[in-house]
Amino acid sequence: MDLATALAAFDRRDWQTADADDGPVRVAMLGLGWWTIEQAIPAVAAGELCETTVVVSSSREKAERVRDDHGTIERAITYDEFVAGEATDAYDAAYVCTPNAYHLEYVEAAAEHGKAVLCEKPMEASIDRAERLAAAADEAGIPLMIAYRMHTEPAVRRARELIDAGAIGEPALVHGNMSERILELVDDEQPWRLDPDVVGPGTSVMDIGIYPLNTARYVLDADPVTVQGMMASTHEAFDRVPDERAAFTVEYEGGVYAACTASQNAASASNLRVIGTEGELNVEPAFYPWQDRALRVTRGDTTIEAGVEGVDQMTEEFDYFADCLLSDRPFYADGEHGLVDMRAIFGVYEAADAGGTVVVDEVGR
Amino acid sequence: MDLATALAAFDRRDWQTADADDGPVRVAMLGLGWWTIEQAIPAVAAGELCETTVVVSSSREKAERVRDDHGTIERAITYDEFVAGEATDAYDAAYVCTPNAYHLEYVEAAAEHGKAVLCEKPMEASIDRAERLAAAADEAGIPLMIAYRMHTEPAVRRARELIDAGAIGEPALVHGNMSERILELVDDEQPWRLDPDVVGPGTSVMDIGIYPLNTARYVLDADPVTVQGMMASTHEAFDRVPDERAAFTVEYEGGVYAACTASQNAASASNLRVIGTEGELNVEPAFYPWQDRALRVTRGDTTIEAGVEGVDQMTEEFDYFADCLLSDRPFYADGEHGLVDMRAIFGVYEAADAGGTVVVDEVGR
């Protein structure tokens, strides 16, 4: 990374090929939880290449309220109407931000309507359903992206470039944590993220442990090979999920080991650290969209730290999604990419349950 | 921690009861490797309560050269002479800093001579020998301390106090790494730390992974309960040990999980991070004696960071050792303390080998 370039344009969009004249990609937002309303819709409004034109909810009233708050939104429909093919002339792509266990149904519907899909991670609540989700997109020939916003977070992209350029030698070890107090973040008395019928086998690894796991994968440019894990729940709100707290290790291709932790019931914190043979790289804070970033690299006696104002990660993600669509090129994180994480995450739960080491590629086969 | 006190005396010796008039404790140094010569002997000379009076080496010439360089050293003897009881009138305590597999023999000899012992960690190259080492001290009634210099590192003591005072709520998750390029740190063509006959079952977890493992234990005031691990060696210099790189997880009493890494073939780096229910605490750099320290604590929107000039950790350790002896009080890290770490470390190797979760208290039984 050239220092002058970094100073002038740390957050440059090295992926962008389209401009506003090429767009917009009109997006239907599925699921009107706090993430969609407070993060996704404002992010799209702030971006260049997308526009929110349809909102979809189980509650027509809620959808209409959201529609009335935003000038670009033309249609407010229910999930059933979405599945039935309502308003297909009003959107080009669907952002699926429902609880995990409902992704498949709406991706299948979008695929049937021939719409591109941006699907939140983790892909689904089970590997089988995630496989069906990817297959539905494949069979319909629609573009499917899994929504890993770290892939367009500038600090993470710069970290990946630095590692690729040998700034820390060969990567050897990784540390990553993501933690938050979910009970204080959501209003629901019974959050779906703590309901195994909806979230999947657990909450902390599934919902936020995926950040260190996948971001390490991205900056290392290496897939997970084996995993181990330990986890426990003691708080009564977590009595249906095994992982109020979790620690897990991931072996990546090339023999890099990552030591990760995640908790939905610990102080909000996030970081990613990569230790190489020649130096060390840190992104901290790393994973929450509302914080400024710091990227610190140490090699020998020299430390360089870049402190940067946080970009809107969701704006970057939506514009990247649209940019790929408008220029007709594949997404970095497609269905196959998401499936590898699904196997790794389920492997962590399997390993924690059985006490062993789990081969990622064998999970769910 | 009172901020005014922290500013005035971050590195206060809250453990000290004796003064220079009560001493010195005269120390025989066993093993004249670089650590003893470059770290331990200067540290004792800089301290208040100890004096190096005897040096012991396999090479009489080397011992005499070291003796001639230091005014306080009266006697330069061989290991055989030490075991036979030479110079027992010239020292009160023995610092055993030989390769791991030789600790037992010299602790047994010191015990036979009725001398106090400061024994380097890990205690020995096998659990059986470590048990015999602790038993030898017990049976002879001599005071035995295992040399964990982090227990008297001011940043670590302040971290422990802060955690105990609830500064980060209940501790939930820990991250710790220690890494170094051992081949560049030592001159030997075949370093003993890579020789399983001398070091024990491995090098990275055994020799430096013990730092995050034990320092977490110390700041949490909780013992390790179960462990998991993954490790590999690819560099030819590491072909007799399994852990050129290692990642391991430790469950501590109270359900705190630590995600740890260690490598004897990665960039020199060290850190300890504790994430609690209310905040996060970092010591970085953490474990190398020649660096200044930073202790950073975040709770909500408030971060307080203390940057402090590194004390000489070995001076603190030797003076603490002497202070306990002079005031006739027990050491924090006695033989039983060291044995728990031995079981945990061997458990990590066992877990990595078998791919399971290992109960620390069952290891080596």
Please specify the SSE layout and strand pairing.
The structure is a homodimer of 365-residue chains.
Chain A: H1 3-9, E1 25-30, H2 34-46, E2 50-57, H3 60-69, E3 75-78, H4 79-84, E4 93-96, H5 103-112, E5 116-120, H6 127-140, E6 144-147, H7 154-164, E7 171-181, H8 182-185, H9 196-199, H10 204-220, E8 224-232, E9 245-252, E10 256-263, E11 265-276, E12 279-283, E13 293-299, E14 302-308, H11 313-326, H12 335-354, E15 358-359
Task: For the structure shown, list the relevant keywords.
homodimer, alpha/beta, Dihydrodipicolinate Reductase, domain 2, 2 domains
Walk me through the structure:
Two copies of one chain form a homodimer. Chain A is of the alpha/beta class and 365 residues long. Chain A folds into two domains: 3-149, 3-Layer(aba) Sandwich (Rossmann fold); 154-310 and 334-362, Dihydrodipicolinate Reductase, domain 2, CATH 3.30.360.10. Chain A is built from twelve helices and 15 strands. In chain A, α6 (127-140) links the parallel β5 (116-120) and β6. In chain A, α6 runs antiparallel to α12 (335-354) and α10 (204-220) crosses α12 (335-354). Chain A is globular. At the A-B interface, β7, β8, β9, β10 and β11 of A face β7, β8, β9, β10 and β11 of B.
